[in-house]
Amino acid sequence: MTTAISFLFFTGLVAIVAWMRTHNDDQQTSSGYFLAGRSLSWFVIGGSLLLTNLSTEQLVGLNGGAYRHGMIVMAWEVWSALSIILMAVVFLPRYLKSGITTIPQFLDLRYGPQTRTFTSVIFLASIVLNVLPFVLLTGAEFMISVFDVPSIIDTTNMTINRAVVCSLLAIVGGCYAVFGGLKAVAVSDTVNGIGLVIGGLLIPILGLSYIGSGSMTSGVSLLAETYPERLSSLGDRSSDIPWETLLTGMTLITTYYWCTNQGIVQRTLASKNLAEGQKGVLFAAFMKLAGPLYLVLPGIIAWHIAFGTDQSPPASADAAYGYLVNLVLPKWAVGFFAATIFGAILSSFNSFLNSGCTLFSIDLYKGVLNTEAPDRQVVKAGKVFGMVMVPVSVLLALLLSPFAETGLFNLMKSIAAVLNIPLLAIVFMGIVSKKTPAVAANYALLAGIIFQSVFGITMGNTLFGSEMHWLHLAAVNFLFLIALMTTVRLISPRPEPFVQEYSKDVDITPWPMAKPLGLTIVVLITAMYLGMWSKFGITPGAKLATEYEQLHPPAAD
């Protein structure tokens, strides 16, 4: 009963705050509904960026990766801060200068309407196939465990349990996205973020105290002395993330996500001005450096408990986070913590659902299907699309549920590479090359998808007989697309160089501290990696894999 009361209290509080901050806003115009009237402050932007990114596919997936592979998976958090800095100082000034609502609009200005339509479809496919169902599925896996859903609805059938929880998550998240618009999404993200920081940091603190017999300091010493190889920031070539991939595909995948992904970028496009947007983006970059504390360390603590004590291990790597939570969290705190996780799930789902609505209504409905549609009708089309996507997302989540036992996070990232690398390549060339024609971008979109689908998925990351890490293959694809577009540019360049015009929608005076703060974050990232490498060495991937199979034989995992 206590769990349910605290859960409902915090969840209701978030809804009330979001309603109070948005119920008088204009939701009938495209700018008001999709960009919060271009009114977001730096704190709301930064908080919404972090919460949109952080959901159970991060909490469950990254901690599951840490349980299996050690600290090297922190690259998805810490290394991504470099890409967020690029967003602040390179991409965001250009986006706000054009006054765009979607990334395809930027590509329309740079290449033309055909490229805009192609990219809108690809962005939508990425959100529908590779974000929404994963958010629901990982969220359902966690909530089923926390609330013991099988006993509540009186069935052990996991398909039914997942269907019920996924449906509830999708309906509540859909209400924020469809009826509240971007501002309701961003405000709820910020409030949930405060709760998640408290709840997220509580788990590793209690976990370290658990293995340290009541002393957090003893717990840290025990981890460092007993399994030092699991605390290294860099992995060898047999690891899940070899250190070389940080310089190839890791940088590219994170740059796509933080600089060109509509679901992430949209809240920055709603900035009051460039300076406010840069403050929010760099705040998010700085906070990313703390990510390993609550997104990686709990998985390592769970490993220590499972491998180094007589406790029964979790059912799989992706169950490691819930396993630790159930061991260390006091019963009185379970409801509050479940509410913060629920908020994180909703944050990612409603943010990307809102972005999907934006892409459909602005780029496809207004851009192709009904070019003369008034603002009110465009907003209505977005809401209808959102309501359709709610049940579709649930269905897709259930279809993906068999992969819940084999590592959802890596599956999500591998699928993402098929669509993300071509999109990043054409945005990159659109910025650095003023004479690359539209036909080059269109060829690159098709060629990049085919390349990654054939050599990555069909042939198992094998290129002309040479097997390689999927992140390296993503980098090869990117270089291939840049070469392809450069060749087309040399053969048939634009008649006149592209000139970006200033829309004057917002002030684009940069924040004077943006570059100095960005450089400071780069120094901190370098110090983190070099410091952990010098103390703990290189993670031996083969050794960690052997230890994992001792606890989880392949037939049982």
Mean pLDDT: 84
**What is the H-and-E element order?**
HHHHHHHHHHHHEHHHHHHHHHHEEHHEH
**Alpha carbon gap, first and last residue:** 34 Å
User: CATH architecture of one domain, please?
Assistant: Up-down Bundle
User: What is the total tally of β strands?
Assistant: 4
What is the overall silhouette? globular
Please tally the helical runs, counting DSSP H or I stretches of 4 or more residues.
Answer: 25
Coarse structural class: mainly alpha
Helical content class: over 70%
What about the largest sheet? 2 strands, parallel
The first-level CATH class of one domain is given as Mainly Alpha
Give me the CATH superfamily of one domain: Sodium/glucose cotransporter
Q: Poorly predicted ranges (pLDDT <50, ≥5 residues)?
A: none
- Cross-sheet strand order for the largest sheet: 1-4
CATH topology of one domain: Sodium/glucose cotransporter
For the CA atoms, what is the radius of gyration? 23 Å
The portion of residues forming beta strands comes to under 5%
Short account of what is shown:
The protein is mainly alpha-helical and 557 residues long. The chain is built from 25 helices and four strands.
Any descriptors?
Sodium/glucose cotransporter, two-stranded parallel sheet, mainly alpha, two-stranded antiparallel sheet, 25 helices, 557 residues, 74% helix
Plain-language structure description:
It contains 25 helices and 4 strands. The protein has a domain at 2-100 and 114-233 and 266-416: Sodium/glucose cotransporter, CATH 1.20.1730.10. The model has no long low-confidence stretch (mean pLDDT 84). A two-stranded parallel sheet has the order 1-4. It has helices spanning 2-22, 30-34, 42-53, 56-69, 75-78, 80-98, 103-110, 113-130, 132-146, 149-153, 158-211, 216-226, 249-259, 262-269, 274-288, 291-295, 297-308, 320-328, 331-369, 375-400, 408-432, 438-458, 470-491, 514-536, 541-551, and strands at 234-235, 462-463, 466-467, 538-539.
